[in-house]
Amino acid sequence: MRHVLLLLAYMTGSHALDNGLAQTPPMGWMSWERFRCVTDCKDDPANCISENLYMTMADKMVSDGYLDAGYEYVNIDDCWMTKTRDENGRLQADRERFPSGIKALADYASILSILVHSKGLKLGIYEDFGTGTCEDYPGSKFYMDIDADTFAGWGVDMLKFDGCNSGISDMPVGYPLMEMWLNKTGRPILYSCSWPAYFVVEGKIPEYEKIAESCNIWRNYYDIQDSWASLKTIIEFYGDDVGNFSKVAGPGNFNDPDMLIIGNYGLSYEQQRVQMALWAIMASPLLMSNDLRDIADASREILLNKNVIAINQDRLGIQGSRIFKMNDFEIWTRPIEPTGSVAFSFLNLADSGTPVKANISTSGLELDMHAVYNVTEGFSGSVVGTLTNGTFFTVGVNPSGVFLGKATKIA
Ligand SMILES: *[C@@H]1O[C@H](CO)[C@@H](O)[C@H](O)[C@H]1NC(C)=O
Ligand SMILES: *[C@@H]1O[C@H](CO)[C@@H](O)[C@H](O)[C@H]1NC(C)=O
Ligand SMILES: *[C@@H]1O[C@H](CO)[C@@H](O)[C@H](O)[C@H]1NC(C)=O
Ligand SMILES: *[C@@H]1O[C@H](CO)[C@@H](O)[C@H](O)[C@H]1NC(C)=O
Ligand SMILES: *[C@@H]1O[C@H](CO)[C@@H](O)[C@H](O)[C@H]1NC(C)=O
């Protein structure tokens, strides 16, 4: 019976996403990649999925400059619930690990922001489209209306809606249905869909234009793991752009290649710079999954780099693309403001131990031969020089490293 009602509501209520959110790629912190599903707080009180973990990360986001840099969402991932719904069918947070409840966490985030007179820290939460989450907690199937209402009531600002324990054929109807229920709550909630990822995993090309009508951001590839190998496969998937998903990105809608793993165990310094540079070029959400209590200064500096964040947050919201690939060397460009300018990456995926040399030129970057560009290095902002059709600059690109640049059109 509930099922029929939900379907009727969908048929009469279909409409396109218009919640005003994600005008630029969202930025924040998310627990999954680093903290997974550790639920034994007696054994590991500092790292278990608990209100203590999220409050501590919220504190660090404020005290260590992440919030000021733009990282505003603190996102709960899987394993926050009890294994059953309450007597009214509502989701409930695990009572031992979240004794104050989710609403208290949302309140904590807003009070913290008020105390430091900073822009708002926001709370994100996780659920699943199917009958159960990926870690087998209760899923939203048959309960989407109640769950949307619960999240809004708690003061949640973002929802990651996973796709375990379901079938892809239900997704083109079910994901838009949840968007409708979120909209009906009246609370703007940033909607992150895992819908296309489940298509890609099954070898199918998702209908990205339809997805962008319902979702602010969407995962479209395998989960990131804490390794260079994992990072490379994601970058290659985005370079290949099968299904032309890059074209669908724009203010309000972004492809999500998954969390930033900068500051964890798996990447070298150069490889951490690669992730930050490429996530900027790809207009990707910047959702860190790391331990902000214990992070190297060098990693923190990469994450807080204002110049790179500015490229990521460019208001045109155009996703960059790979325009050249030969063996392990790639050139990526992203149109940015002011009109006619680009951010670019020379990417060296090789692990042979010496930097490769590459030329910055108008032809190599497919720029206007008649224009003049001011070229700066993307991390430091230092001036490389003035580029015209006649000039070029040779730079070195380190092994498993990147040269990030900006060519600003000045004439
Ligand atoms: C709901 O959708 C309508 C139109 O599609 C839009 O104007 C409104 O801002 C949305 N509200 C929320 C809370 O997302
Ligand atoms: C992607 O775009 C190219 C042209 O830009 C087109 O030839 C191709 O069919 C498109 N592929 C898909 C899956 O839409
Ligand atoms: C850079 O361009 C110059 C002039 O065309 C050329 O002599 C040089 O070999 C190029 N270097 C690389 C690494 O392509
Ligand atoms: C750009 O430079 C090349 C080689 O120097 C030259 O052949 C070409 O005419 C120039 N193009 C323009 C538009 O100036
Ligand atoms: C190039 O950009 C740098 C950094 O923004 C700036 O200081 C410099 O004046 C610019 N040069 C030109 C020629 O516009």
Summarize the main sheet: 8 strands, parallel
The share of residues in extended strands comes to 15-25%
- Given this structure, which CATH class of the largest domain is correct? Alpha Beta
Which ligands occur here? 2-acetamido-2-deoxy-beta-D-glucopyranose
How big is the Rg? 22 Å
Question: In which range does the helix fraction lie?
Answer: 25-40%
Count every helix, treating DSSP H or I runs of 4 or more residues as helices.
13
Shape: globular
Characteristic key phrases:
TIM Barrel, alpha/beta, 2 domains, binds 2-acetamido-2-deoxy-beta-D-glucopyranose, Immunoglobulin-like, globular, 411 residues, 30% helix
Please, could you describe this protein's structure?
The chain is an alpha/beta fold and 411 residues long. The chain has two domains: 2-312, Aldolase class I (TIM Barrel, Alpha-Beta Barrel); 321-409, Sandwich (Immunoglobulin-like), CATH 2.60.40.1180. Helices cover 30% and strands 20% of the residues. The strands form three sheets. The protein has an eight-stranded parallel β-sheet. The protein has a six-stranded antiparallel β-sheet with strand order 9-10-11-16-13-14. It has a two-stranded antiparallel ribbon with strand order 12-15. It binds 2-acetamido-2-deoxy-beta-D-glucopyranose (5 copies). One 2-acetamido-2-deoxy-beta-D-glucopyranose binds at residues 357-359, 392, 394.
